[in-house]
Amino acid sequence: MFLKEYLSDIYHATKSLLTGMKRTGYYFVHPKEIITEQYPDNRETLKMADRFRGEVIMPHDANNEHACTGCTACELACPNATIKIITKFDVTPEGKKKKALDTFVYHLELCTMCNLCVEACPTDAIKMGQNFEHSVYDRSMLLKKLNKPGSKIREGVE
Amino acid sequence: MFSLQGITSGIQSFLHARFSASGVLIFESLIVILLATTLFALLGLVLVWMERKVAAQMQIRLGPNRVGPMGIFQTSADTLKLILKEGLTPDGADKLLFNLAPFVVMVVAMLLLAPIAFAKGFQVWDINIGVLYITAVSSLSVIGILMAGWASNNKYSLLGAMRSGAQIVSYELSAGLSILTIVVLTGSLQLGDIINAQQNGWWLFKGHIPVIIAFVIFIIAATAETNRAPFDMAEAESELTAGFHTEYSGMKFALFFLAEYINIFIVCAIAATLFLGGWMPLHIGNWQGFNHLMDYIPSSIWFFAKTFALIFLIMWFRWTFPRLRVDQLLNLEWKYLLPISLFNLLLVTVIAILGWHF
Amino acid sequence: MTASQIIFYAISAFILGAGLLSVTSTKIFRAAIWLLFSLVGIAGLYFWMQVEFVAAVQIVVYVGGIVVLIIFSIFLTQESGKKMPKPSARKTVFSVLSALFGFGFTYNLISKYGFPIGNTKPFTVAVSDIGTQMLSTTNYGYILPFEVVSMLLLASMIGCIVIAMKTPEQKPGEPKQIKVTNNEDAPAPTVVVIPSVPEPLIIAEV
Questions:
Q1: Cα separation of B87 and B98, whole Å?
Q2: From CA B255, how far away is CA B251, in angstroms rounded?
Q3: Alpha carbons B258 and B260: distance in angstroms, whole number
Q4: Cα–Cα distances in Å, from C34 out to A34, B147, C27, C57?
Q5: pLDDT digit string, tens, across residues A129-152
Q6: Domain of A22?
Q7: Is the peptide bond before B230 cis (omega within 30 degrees of 0)?
Q8: For chain C, which terminus, N or C, has the lower number of CB atoms within 10 Å?
Q9: pTM value?
Q10: Is A10 contained in some domain?
Q11: Helix or strand or coil: residue C204?
């Protein structure tokens, strides 16, 4: 019936509009819900989300050891040539030659934080860090070496 | 009790004692011009700040908070910036009309201010056809928008102006019809009479459900007539960049921006006057004690409180509802609001004739 | 000269100036805007005469209605921004002559009327009186013209709706009958039966 449809149209429209207004009205009278972060005023207490990707880092343990075998899987996975792995040959105590990481070169200025290198890594040697304050005065300062000087591969990582 | 009526009549008698009739007219006009301009500037600053704060709170943000405490000087800083900016006139624009349009919009807003009663006995012109005057003059605002849209020589502007024209022309009907319900109940077009008729209760409470329906329709139509979201097809940022004022910059843009907020204030003031009794304090029938208590609050505070409550309501609409499409807009007016308000007017007439209202 | 007289002359000069610009402008949109200002000026003159009702109606009908309609039709026409060609000399001469004739005719009428001097009785008509007179059935009441005009408006509105109305949509599954005229020399419209298609395929309606 036409009139019934017409009236129910009006009723449902009003109801849905009021539902929307209830939500925004709730936010208006509840200032505690505000999610704005007043950076840099709250720099000390700033808590980034876990999934935030700021840069690629390579964690080192207390003995200055990392887990990178120098397999270049991350370099191959990177879509825009951000990572360059330079390898060397270590001599094991048995006298064998073994491929190992010499320098992990990371171009922060090229990185899009796509996370593909972290996913490609077979030994979980790299992960995404949460630091986002990357601005510097010279572009060359964005070229980073991720493995710390004097570090070596952790025992048992193949 | 604090009253503005004493001040106005004091000035009147002071001037009459010293000058001829023409001199009094000139002096009073100057005072009115000064007051109106000050009110416009203050309203612009306050309403823009209020809008930004309300928007922020509703979107779980903080809003302006850097310039002054709670960011209250943010709008002053913005105004300063707009004054200092260059007012560009695009090549190929109709220069005269392009520069005239913001002033037309502004003058219309100023004209609408004339019959509004800000407090008891504080009114520029209690014209005897007040309501008709308001509907007539508010129909002029579309001219400024059409001028701006056409003279800019820009397709966005022209489309925005066309949309705005179609919108204002159609929503004027239901706004006019819902105003008429109050005219029918009061039996007068004069705003002073309409306010005095609400001595024993506001029309919104006295007039039963039909007046509430008329009030809702008036608020919807007023939102549409001021080109505000959800009816902001005329400027629709995501479709037309800025609609009819795409090409404007600097102070000329500021005038359009200011006129938008002044128009909101005016339509809300009219809604407050017609449905909520203007400066009339909250009176309930014959409760003498209660009525007397309410009279202690100055009438100007009542007026501004009601108006700002309605402005808040319209801002609430803007930050809640998504924009309508043009066809939806016209459907809403011609298929829903207009038939309902026609039927509603009939109902109110029956109520008024049979004396069913309080 | 009192302030009131100054205002009168200012408004009159505004009306005449805007009217002159409206006639002489070569851009059609500007002409419409000057016409608008002229009409607003006339409304201002009514306000000056303190016949507010007529002034408000002047604004509603002429400015809010007719000029907006004119502007809309200008928007919808092609090349509304172009300058119009200068009218030919013959046209100009005849226009000036007709304007002069109109002026002389009106002036003659006004000068013959002989306004009574000193009759400055205030002229106030309440709006409610206008309303009562409009719907009055007694002598000098305007109920008949009022109703006739309402019927005319109603007829034109119904006409508009009929023109704008869409043909009722056919239910899916039913074959569609669409009349097609091939060209002018076809003696009668041929009726083609097309099996149902999702979109309406109207070629021409007869």
A1: 11
A2: 6
A3: 5
A4: 52, 12, 11, 19
A5: 888 888 889 888 888 888 888 787
A6: 2-33
A7: yes
A8: N
A9: 0.79
A10: yes
A11: coil
A40 within domain boundaries: no
Domain range for residue C16?
3-119
Reported as a single tens digit per residue, the pLDDT across C103-154 is 999 999 988 887 776 666 666 777 777 778 888 888 778 888 888 999 999 9
Integer Rg of chain C from CA: 27
Q: What is the CATH number of the domain that holds C14?
A: 1.20.120.1200
Q: Which of these, B75, B78, B83, B81, lies nearest to B51 by C-alpha position?
A: B75
Report the C-alpha gap between C95 and B270 in whole angstroms. Answer: 47
Tally of domains within chain C: 3
| CA atoms of B173 and A70, how far apart (whole Å) | 77
DSSP bridge partners of A153: A66
Asked if C50 and C101 sit in the same domain, the reply is yes
Half-sphere exposure of B54 (CA within 13 A, CB side): 19
Q: Is the ipTM of this complex over 0.90?
A: no
Q: Which residues of A touch B65 (CB under 8 A)?
A: 38
Look up residue A20 and give its amino acid.
G
**Min CA distance, A67 vs chain B (Å)?**
43
- β partners of residue A91: A97
Angle (deg, nearest 10), helices B4-18 and B21-58 = 150
Structure tokens at A93: 């105590």
Counting CB pairs under 8 A, whether chains C and B reach 3 or more, is: yes
Q: Kind and range of the H or E element at B84?
A: helix B74-84
Cis omega (within 30 of 0) on the bond before A40?
yes
Calculated CA dihedral for residues C188, C189, C191, C197, nearest 10 degrees: 170
Evaluate whether B275 touches B203 at the Cβ level (below 8 Å): yes
Nearest to B165 among C68, C126, C127 (CB): C68
Question: Taken in order A25, A29, A32, A35, is the CA torsion positive or negative?
Answer: positive
**In the block, residue with structure tokens 């409009």:** C134
Q: Within this chain, do residues A65 and A107 fall inside the same structural domain, yes or no?
A: yes
**Beta-carbon pairs below 8 A across chains A and B:** 38
Q: At how many degrees (to 10) do helices B155-186 and B141-151 cross?
A: 180
At B116-168, the pLDDT tens digits run: 888 777 777 777 788 888 888 888 888 888 888 888 888 888 888 888 888 88
A36 in contact with B, Cβ within 8 Å: yes
B155-186 and B208-225 are packed helices; what angle lies between their axes, rounded to 10 degrees? Answer: 160
Cβ(B215)–Cβ(B275) under 8 Å?
A: yes
